[in-house]
Amino acid sequence: MSDPGATILGMWEPFQSTLEQAVPLSEVTFCVVDLETTGGSPIDARITEIGAVEYRGGERLRTFQTLIDPGHPIPRYVSHLTGIDDRLVRGAPTIDAVLPSFIEFSRGSIFVAHNARFDFSFLNASLVRTERDPLPGPPVCTAKLARRIVWPDVPNVRLRTLADHFRTRARPTHRALPDAEACGEVLNALLELGQRLGILSLGDLLEACTARGRPNFGKIRLADPLPRAPGVYLFRTRNGDVLYVGKAIDLRARVRSYFYGDERKQVQDLLQAVHSVEGLATPGGELEALVLEARLIGRHEPRYNRRGKAWRRSAYLKLDLREAFPRLKVARRATTSQDCIVLGPFGTSTSARLAAEALHEVFPIRRCTRSMGRGTRFPPCALADLGRCTGPCDGRTDHERYGELVGRLVSSLSSPGELLGALEARMAHLAAQERYEEAGDVRDRLRSLAKAISDARRDSWLVGAGRLALRTTDGRLVRLIDGAIARAGEPPPEPIPLPCPRERAMELAAVRGWLAKNQVVVEACDVPPCEPVAGGAELARVLHRIRAAEQHPEDVHQGRGSARVISTRRRADLAAGRVAGPG
Length: 583
Hints:
The chain is of the alpha+beta class. The chain folds into five domains: 25-204, Ribonuclease H-like superfamily/Ribonuclease H (Nucleotidyltransferase, domain 5, 2-Layer Sandwich), CATH 3.30.420; 216-311, GIY-YIG endonuclease (3-Layer(aba) Sandwich), CATH 3.40.1440; 315-414, no CATH class; 454-525, no CATH class; 536-576, no CATH class. It has 19 helices and 15 strands. It has helices at 76-82, 86-89, 95-106, 116-129, 142-149, 159-166, 176-194, 202-210, 251-257, 265-273, 286-300, 349-362, 382-385, 399-414, 417-432, 436-464, 505-517, 536-551, 560-576; strands spanning 29-37, 47-56, 59-67, 110-113, 140-141, 231-236, 242-248, 276-281, 315-320, 328-331, 340-346, 467-472, 477-481, 484-485, 520-525. The chain has a five-stranded mixed sheet. The two termini are 63 Å apart.
């Protein structure tokens, strides 16, 4: 059953293929297997011959070969192909007798075969039928590996074609051992070529075999210089222009993953244009990587980053108290004037308008765009006749009373409990009247306003803390100066003013979002970070309820006519807190 001319290893340490993926390929033991069977299905067909060869570092160690009595007649066409017929297997051991020897032979090695799924599934089916544990996977497939490394230099990846291409000494003959020997030589040739593509460890090899795409696989070597550390990576063109900026916990593994089967056209277009990859490690961990990513995206505006120019869509909600009759305006730029109340930045002008409509639901200040002095008069609009505006345009509300209304609006932004309660009551009232579309609109306005107020509160203490040192749960120390991350070895960052400029919004949002999800300890600060108590509980409750409602799928009944009504009712019910989940 074994080749006496081969080197026999008496004792060898078991190799844990799933845990030791960083092991260099030169230290990995491969068991190259080939089977002959009575058919193509592991359910109906049986094994008639097993051939296997062990290799390590390109050196052949030992072989395994035996015929097997399948227990039923071998089809004539199979005998014609392989030369194995009923006479040849008469007196051969059964699979039940062979499996213990094969398991011992292959123990501690990585299973390899050409079109490995076929051989691997046949052996595991036989092991399960004889009540034994299946072989550990995943197997290495030389056909898949050849598609990554030598295609299209070869017309196909059949074993005979590859054996001719690499001029192997063993030739495939549709017998188990010669085919396994030819496959082993092909494997060694592929591994030698694969070094140029960065296939150096067992993990690299397994990833290469599971990759679905091939066109840009050769560029995988661009990831080799990157560290296995958290940080930010930049894909650059031949001219050095930045195509894409991303972050990763393991820079090398993340960049390599782009070449392992992501067949989206946008990703393939990106990889086609990539000429070099730059990696920037972040000793401060994930938070520093998030901030550095935001800064680089804002600086370079890469065309493959969706957020590359997203900050240009940001908007603010502004209330200019210097006007005789102030009104809410959506502005593209923040103002630092003490006479202006500014909320934002919002991600889009639509979100800013939703927040303005939420305030208009409770405070009937004017919405017209016409400039007004104290004595300005003109005919009122329909909103004044409907009671949705106090109507300063025709004098029904004087300057003092209008000023009191604006004062209550400004006060509600710092103490939003009554404001949020009024909007919730309005939404519940509309839902009770089965005006579900309107209730859904109020819910959207409430969400936009509540999120903006909550973000503004966090930004105020984050920026207002001055120099802030935070200790993360993994022991890293993060330093911020006026809301901006200070990176080791670099000059102090530019402080972030309030309201936050659009071009710094992503950076501040990254810090705010990370702090909301992670526990930290404040080690030092200029001003103790704190938020106003007033309205805090209401803000948290409203945001939690809306987010919980959005996580549940909508119930949509059959039929086009009822789908929109039912989904809208579902949203209104969830937002109003009348139901806890799908049902």
